[in-house]
Amino acid sequence: MSATPPPADRHRADFEVLYQRHSREVWALVYARWLNADTAMDITQETFLRLWKQWEDGGEEILNPRAWLLRVARNLAEDHAKSAFRRNGTYPPQTMNGVEANGLLPLENLEKEETFGQVRKELEDLPKADREILTLRYALEYETGEIAELLGINATAVHMRLSRARQRLAERLESRGVGRSS
Amino acid sequence: MTDMPLRPTQPDDVDVLLRDWFQSQMPKPWPASPLSRGLRPTVLPFRRPEPRYYRPMRSRLALAASVAVLALGGWLIAGRVSTPPDAGPDLGPTKPEATELWRREWKQHRNRGTEVRPDKIKTSLSLEQNPSGETTIKVDVTLEDAPPMK
Question: pTM for the whole thing?
Fold first, then answer.
Protein backbone atom coordinates (compact mmCIF):
# COMPACT_ATOMS: atom_id res chain seq x y z
CA MET A 1 0.00 0.00 0.00
CA SER A 2 1.47 3.32 -1.02
CA ALA A 3 1.92 6.16 1.42
CA THR A 4 0.30 8.79 -0.80
CA PRO A 5 -2.85 8.04 -2.76
CA PRO A 6 -2.79 8.51 -6.54
CA PRO A 7 -3.89 12.00 -7.75
CA ALA A 8 -7.41 10.96 -8.76
CA ASP A 9 -8.11 9.50 -5.33
CA ARG A 10 -6.55 12.47 -3.63
CA HIS A 11 -8.75 14.81 -5.70
CA ARG A 12 -11.75 12.81 -4.75
CA ALA A 13 -10.88 13.01 -1.07
CA ASP A 14 -10.35 16.77 -1.38
CA PHE A 15 -13.68 17.03 -3.15
CA GLU A 16 -15.49 15.20 -0.35
CA VAL A 17 -13.88 17.46 2.24
CA LEU A 18 -14.98 20.55 0.33
CA TYR A 19 -18.48 19.16 0.01
CA GLN A 20 -18.75 18.49 3.71
CA ARG A 21 -17.34 21.91 4.54
CA HIS A 22 -19.16 24.18 2.09
CA SER A 23 -22.22 22.46 0.64
CA ARG A 24 -24.51 23.89 3.32
CA GLU A 25 -23.26 27.41 2.65
CA VAL A 26 -23.83 26.95 -1.06
CA TRP A 27 -27.30 25.59 -0.40
CA ALA A 28 -28.13 28.49 1.92
CA LEU A 29 -27.20 31.13 -0.65
CA VAL A 30 -29.20 29.46 -3.40
CA TYR A 31 -32.10 28.88 -1.05
CA ALA A 32 -32.09 32.57 -0.17
CA ARG A 33 -32.51 33.31 -3.88
CA TRP A 34 -35.44 31.02 -4.62
CA LEU A 35 -36.83 29.98 -1.23
CA ASN A 36 -37.13 26.47 -2.59
CA ALA A 37 -35.21 23.72 -0.83
CA ASP A 38 -35.24 21.26 -3.75
CA THR A 39 -34.08 23.79 -6.30
CA ALA A 40 -31.36 24.89 -3.91
CA MET A 41 -30.16 21.32 -3.47
CA ASP A 42 -30.17 20.65 -7.24
CA ILE A 43 -28.09 23.75 -7.86
CA THR A 44 -25.78 22.88 -4.96
CA GLN A 45 -25.07 19.47 -6.44
CA GLU A 46 -24.56 20.95 -9.88
CA THR A 47 -22.14 23.49 -8.47
CA PHE A 48 -19.97 20.77 -6.95
CA LEU A 49 -20.11 18.75 -10.14
CA ARG A 50 -18.81 21.79 -11.99
CA LEU A 51 -15.92 21.91 -9.57
CA TRP A 52 -15.12 18.26 -10.22
CA LYS A 53 -15.36 18.82 -13.96
CA GLN A 54 -12.98 21.73 -13.68
CA TRP A 55 -10.48 19.52 -11.87
CA GLU A 56 -10.91 16.71 -14.37
CA ASP A 57 -10.35 19.02 -17.33
CA GLY A 58 -7.28 20.44 -15.70
CA GLY A 59 -8.50 24.01 -16.19
CA GLU A 60 -7.28 27.05 -14.34
CA GLU A 61 -6.21 26.37 -10.79
CA ILE A 62 -8.85 27.31 -8.25
CA LEU A 63 -7.05 29.18 -5.51
CA ASN A 64 -10.07 29.76 -3.31
CA PRO A 65 -12.53 26.88 -3.73
CA ARG A 66 -15.04 28.38 -1.33
CA ALA A 67 -15.26 31.67 -3.23
CA TRP A 68 -15.35 29.75 -6.53
CA LEU A 69 -18.20 27.54 -5.35
CA LEU A 70 -20.24 30.46 -4.06
CA ARG A 71 -19.72 32.41 -7.28
CA VAL A 72 -20.71 29.49 -9.50
CA ALA A 73 -23.72 28.75 -7.30
CA ARG A 74 -24.91 32.34 -7.55
CA ASN A 75 -24.54 32.26 -11.33
CA LEU A 76 -26.39 28.97 -11.60
CA ALA A 77 -29.14 30.31 -9.35
CA GLU A 78 -29.55 33.32 -11.63
CA ASP A 79 -29.48 31.09 -14.72
CA HIS A 80 -32.24 29.04 -13.18
CA ALA A 81 -34.54 32.02 -13.72
CA LYS A 82 -34.02 31.68 -17.46
CA SER A 83 -34.30 27.92 -17.63
CA ALA A 84 -37.11 26.34 -19.57
CA PHE A 85 -38.11 24.30 -16.53
CA ARG A 86 -38.80 27.37 -14.46
CA ARG A 87 -40.64 29.13 -17.27
CA ASN A 88 -42.82 26.18 -18.24
CA GLY A 89 -42.72 23.85 -15.29
CA THR A 90 -44.32 23.97 -11.93
CA TYR A 91 -43.48 23.07 -8.39
CA PRO A 92 -44.53 19.69 -7.05
CA PRO A 93 -47.75 19.69 -5.02
CA GLN A 94 -45.83 19.14 -1.78
CA THR A 95 -44.49 22.66 -2.02
CA MET A 96 -47.79 24.40 -2.75
CA ASN A 97 -48.54 27.39 -0.53
CA GLY A 98 -44.85 27.62 0.07
CA VAL A 99 -44.82 24.87 2.64
CA GLU A 100 -43.26 21.49 2.13
CA ALA A 101 -45.39 18.73 3.51
CA ASN A 102 -44.03 15.91 5.62
CA GLY A 103 -46.75 13.41 4.87
CA LEU A 104 -50.28 14.02 6.15
CA LEU A 105 -50.83 17.17 8.14
CA PRO A 106 -52.38 16.66 11.58
CA LEU A 107 -54.84 19.31 12.64
CA GLU A 108 -52.51 20.67 15.28
CA ASN A 109 -49.95 21.45 12.58
CA LEU A 110 -52.29 23.44 10.38
CA GLU A 111 -51.80 26.67 12.25
CA LYS A 112 -48.08 26.19 12.24
CA GLU A 113 -48.14 25.67 8.51
CA GLU A 114 -50.19 28.83 8.15
CA THR A 115 -47.61 30.72 10.17
CA PHE A 116 -44.86 29.29 8.01
CA GLY A 117 -46.77 30.38 4.91
CA GLN A 118 -46.81 33.92 6.27
CA VAL A 119 -43.12 33.75 7.13
CA ARG A 120 -42.38 32.67 3.61
CA LYS A 121 -44.44 35.49 2.16
CA GLU A 122 -42.61 38.01 4.28
CA LEU A 123 -39.26 36.52 3.32
CA GLU A 124 -40.18 36.80 -0.35
CA ASP A 125 -40.77 40.51 0.13
CA LEU A 126 -37.36 41.05 1.70
CA PRO A 127 -34.34 42.11 -0.41
CA LYS A 128 -32.23 39.15 -1.50
CA ALA A 129 -29.28 40.36 0.55
CA ASP A 130 -31.40 40.31 3.70
CA ARG A 131 -32.64 36.81 2.91
CA GLU A 132 -29.06 35.61 2.52
CA ILE A 133 -28.17 36.91 5.96
CA LEU A 134 -31.27 35.41 7.55
CA THR A 135 -30.66 32.03 5.92
CA LEU A 136 -27.06 31.91 7.07
CA ARG A 137 -28.07 33.00 10.56
CA TYR A 138 -31.01 30.69 11.12
CA ALA A 139 -30.40 27.74 8.83
CA LEU A 140 -26.67 27.41 9.47
CA GLU A 141 -26.59 29.18 12.86
CA TYR A 142 -23.72 31.38 11.72
CA GLU A 143 -22.56 34.21 13.94
CA THR A 144 -22.43 37.77 12.66
CA GLY A 145 -18.68 37.61 12.00
CA GLU A 146 -18.97 34.42 9.96
CA ILE A 147 -21.78 35.89 7.86
CA ALA A 148 -19.79 39.07 7.29
CA GLU A 149 -16.77 37.09 6.15
CA LEU A 150 -18.75 34.85 3.84
CA LEU A 151 -20.63 37.70 2.18
CA GLY A 152 -17.72 40.11 2.16
CA ILE A 153 -19.53 42.83 4.08
CA ASN A 154 -18.85 44.36 7.47
CA ALA A 155 -20.31 43.02 10.69
CA THR A 156 -22.24 46.21 11.41
CA ALA A 157 -24.14 45.86 8.17
CA VAL A 158 -24.98 42.25 9.01
CA HIS A 159 -26.17 43.20 12.47
CA MET A 160 -28.25 46.08 11.16
CA ARG A 161 -29.89 44.00 8.45
CA LEU A 162 -30.63 41.18 10.85
CA SER A 163 -32.32 43.36 13.42
CA ARG A 164 -34.24 45.27 10.75
CA ALA A 165 -35.52 42.05 9.17
CA ARG A 166 -36.52 40.63 12.55
CA GLN A 167 -38.35 43.80 13.53
CA ARG A 168 -40.14 43.96 10.23
CA LEU A 169 -41.21 40.33 10.46
CA ALA A 170 -42.45 40.82 14.01
CA GLU A 171 -44.57 43.81 13.00
CA ARG A 172 -46.01 42.18 9.92
CA LEU A 173 -46.84 38.90 11.58
CA GLU A 174 -48.42 40.75 14.48
CA SER A 175 -50.54 42.85 12.11
CA ARG A 176 -51.75 39.67 10.42
CA GLY A 177 -52.55 38.04 13.72
CA VAL A 178 -50.36 35.08 12.94
CA GLY A 179 -49.99 32.54 15.73
CA ARG A 180 -52.28 30.62 17.98
CA SER A 181 -55.16 32.76 19.17
CA SER A 182 -55.97 30.82 22.33
CA MET B 1 -38.08 21.04 17.65
CA THR B 2 -38.47 24.38 19.40
CA ASP B 3 -41.96 25.37 20.53
CA MET B 4 -43.65 27.97 18.38
CA PRO B 5 -44.30 31.34 20.01
CA LEU B 6 -47.97 32.21 20.51
CA ARG B 7 -47.65 35.54 18.76
CA PRO B 8 -44.25 36.53 17.43
CA THR B 9 -44.46 40.11 18.56
CA GLN B 10 -40.94 40.38 19.92
CA PRO B 11 -37.70 39.96 18.00
CA ASP B 12 -36.80 37.09 20.31
CA ASP B 13 -40.00 35.34 19.31
CA VAL B 14 -39.17 36.00 15.69
CA ASP B 15 -35.79 34.39 16.30
CA VAL B 16 -37.51 31.20 17.38
CA LEU B 17 -39.93 31.33 14.47
CA LEU B 18 -37.24 31.95 11.90
CA ARG B 19 -34.98 29.25 13.27
CA ASP B 20 -37.89 26.84 13.18
CA TRP B 21 -38.73 27.83 9.61
CA PHE B 22 -35.22 27.62 8.20
CA GLN B 23 -34.41 24.38 10.00
CA SER B 24 -37.56 22.84 8.56
CA GLN B 25 -36.39 23.80 5.09
CA MET B 26 -32.99 22.18 5.29
CA PRO B 27 -32.79 18.69 3.79
CA LYS B 28 -32.54 15.97 6.45
CA PRO B 29 -30.46 13.93 6.23
CA TRP B 30 -28.03 16.02 4.27
CA PRO B 31 -27.48 14.34 0.86
CA ALA B 32 -24.15 12.72 0.09
CA SER B 33 -21.87 14.40 -2.43
CA PRO B 34 -22.86 14.06 -6.08
CA LEU B 35 -19.73 12.05 -6.86
CA SER B 36 -20.60 9.38 -4.34
CA ARG B 37 -24.00 9.14 -6.01
CA GLY B 38 -22.43 8.81 -9.44
CA LEU B 39 -23.92 12.03 -10.82
CA ARG B 40 -22.46 13.96 -13.72
CA PRO B 41 -22.93 17.63 -14.64
CA THR B 42 -26.28 18.18 -16.29
CA VAL B 43 -25.24 21.30 -18.13
CA LEU B 44 -22.35 21.42 -20.54
CA PRO B 45 -19.50 23.40 -19.05
CA PHE B 46 -18.49 26.63 -20.67
CA ARG B 47 -16.03 26.17 -23.52
CA ARG B 48 -12.55 26.69 -22.32
CA PRO B 49 -11.06 29.89 -23.74
CA GLU B 50 -8.47 29.37 -26.44
CA PRO B 51 -4.86 29.97 -25.53
CA ARG B 52 -3.80 33.56 -26.07
CA TYR B 53 -1.13 32.74 -28.62
CA TYR B 54 -3.73 31.14 -30.91
CA ARG B 55 -6.00 34.20 -31.24
CA PRO B 56 -3.79 36.50 -33.40
CA MET B 57 -2.76 33.57 -35.60
CA ARG B 58 -6.39 32.74 -36.31
CA SER B 59 -7.25 36.32 -37.20
CA ARG B 60 -4.25 36.53 -39.53
CA LEU B 61 -5.29 33.33 -41.23
CA ALA B 62 -8.81 34.68 -41.68
CA LEU B 63 -7.44 37.89 -43.18
CA ALA B 64 -5.18 36.00 -45.58
CA ALA B 65 -8.05 33.74 -46.64
CA SER B 66 -10.30 36.76 -47.24
CA VAL B 67 -7.70 38.47 -49.42
CA ALA B 68 -7.13 35.27 -51.38
CA VAL B 69 -10.85 34.78 -52.00
CA LEU B 70 -11.20 38.42 -53.05
CA ALA B 71 -8.29 38.25 -55.49
CA LEU B 72 -9.32 34.90 -56.92
CA GLY B 73 -12.95 35.98 -57.24
CA GLY B 74 -12.01 39.21 -59.00
CA TRP B 75 -9.74 37.35 -61.40
CA LEU B 76 -12.40 34.73 -62.21
CA ILE B 77 -15.16 37.26 -62.69
CA ALA B 78 -12.96 39.44 -64.90
CA GLY B 79 -12.24 36.40 -67.11
CA ARG B 80 -15.89 35.46 -67.45
CA VAL B 81 -17.33 38.86 -68.31
CA SER B 82 -14.54 40.20 -70.47
CA THR B 83 -15.87 42.41 -73.25
CA PRO B 84 -15.92 40.76 -76.70
CA PRO B 85 -13.69 42.47 -79.28
CA ASP B 86 -16.57 43.94 -81.23
CA ALA B 87 -18.74 44.86 -78.29
CA GLY B 88 -17.64 48.49 -78.27
CA PRO B 89 -16.82 50.61 -75.26
CA ASP B 90 -18.47 49.67 -72.01
CA LEU B 91 -21.50 51.86 -71.27
CA GLY B 92 -22.33 50.40 -67.90
CA PRO B 93 -25.68 48.76 -67.08
CA THR B 94 -28.31 49.41 -69.71
CA LYS B 95 -31.50 47.84 -70.99
CA PRO B 96 -30.87 44.88 -73.37
CA GLU B 97 -32.51 46.61 -76.34
CA ALA B 98 -30.41 49.73 -75.82
CA THR B 99 -27.29 47.62 -75.67
CA GLU B 100 -28.27 45.87 -78.89
CA LEU B 101 -28.89 49.20 -80.61
CA TRP B 102 -25.51 50.40 -79.46
CA ARG B 103 -23.79 47.28 -80.77
CA ARG B 104 -25.45 47.60 -84.16
CA GLU B 105 -24.32 51.18 -84.46
CA TRP B 106 -20.86 50.22 -83.35
CA LYS B 107 -20.61 47.49 -85.98
CA GLN B 108 -21.76 49.89 -88.67
CA HIS B 109 -18.96 52.21 -87.74
CA ARG B 110 -16.47 49.40 -87.78
CA ASN B 111 -17.70 48.25 -91.18
CA ARG B 112 -17.28 51.74 -92.48
CA GLY B 113 -13.73 51.52 -91.27
CA THR B 114 -14.01 54.53 -89.04
CA GLU B 115 -12.07 54.95 -85.89
CA VAL B 116 -14.07 55.72 -82.79
CA ARG B 117 -12.19 57.49 -80.11
CA PRO B 118 -13.60 57.97 -76.65
CA ASP B 119 -13.72 61.74 -77.13
CA LYS B 120 -15.98 61.21 -80.15
CA ILE B 121 -18.67 59.53 -78.09
CA LYS B 122 -21.27 61.99 -76.88
CA THR B 123 -23.78 60.94 -74.26
CA SER B 124 -26.72 62.76 -72.71
CA LEU B 125 -29.04 61.76 -69.90
CA SER B 126 -32.69 62.77 -69.52
CA LEU B 127 -35.63 61.74 -67.38
CA GLU B 128 -38.85 60.80 -69.15
CA GLN B 129 -42.23 59.99 -67.78
CA ASN B 130 -44.50 57.72 -69.80
CA PRO B 131 -48.35 57.95 -69.78
CA SER B 132 -48.60 55.28 -67.09
CA GLY B 133 -46.56 57.48 -64.75
CA GLU B 134 -43.41 55.37 -64.86
CA THR B 135 -40.23 57.42 -64.87
CA THR B 136 -37.31 56.20 -66.95
CA ILE B 137 -33.81 57.43 -67.56
CA LYS B 138 -33.06 57.97 -71.22
CA VAL B 139 -29.46 57.73 -72.33
CA ASP B 140 -28.62 59.12 -75.79
CA VAL B 141 -25.32 58.03 -77.24
CA THR B 142 -24.10 59.56 -80.46
CA LEU B 143 -20.91 58.87 -82.34
CA GLU B 144 -19.25 61.67 -84.21
CA ASP B 145 -17.89 60.46 -87.54
CA ALA B 146 -14.18 60.35 -87.78
CA PRO B 147 -12.07 60.32 -90.96
CA PRO B 148 -11.60 56.84 -92.49
CA MET B 149 -8.70 54.85 -91.05
CA LYS B 150 -5.72 54.39 -93.29
Answer: 0.56
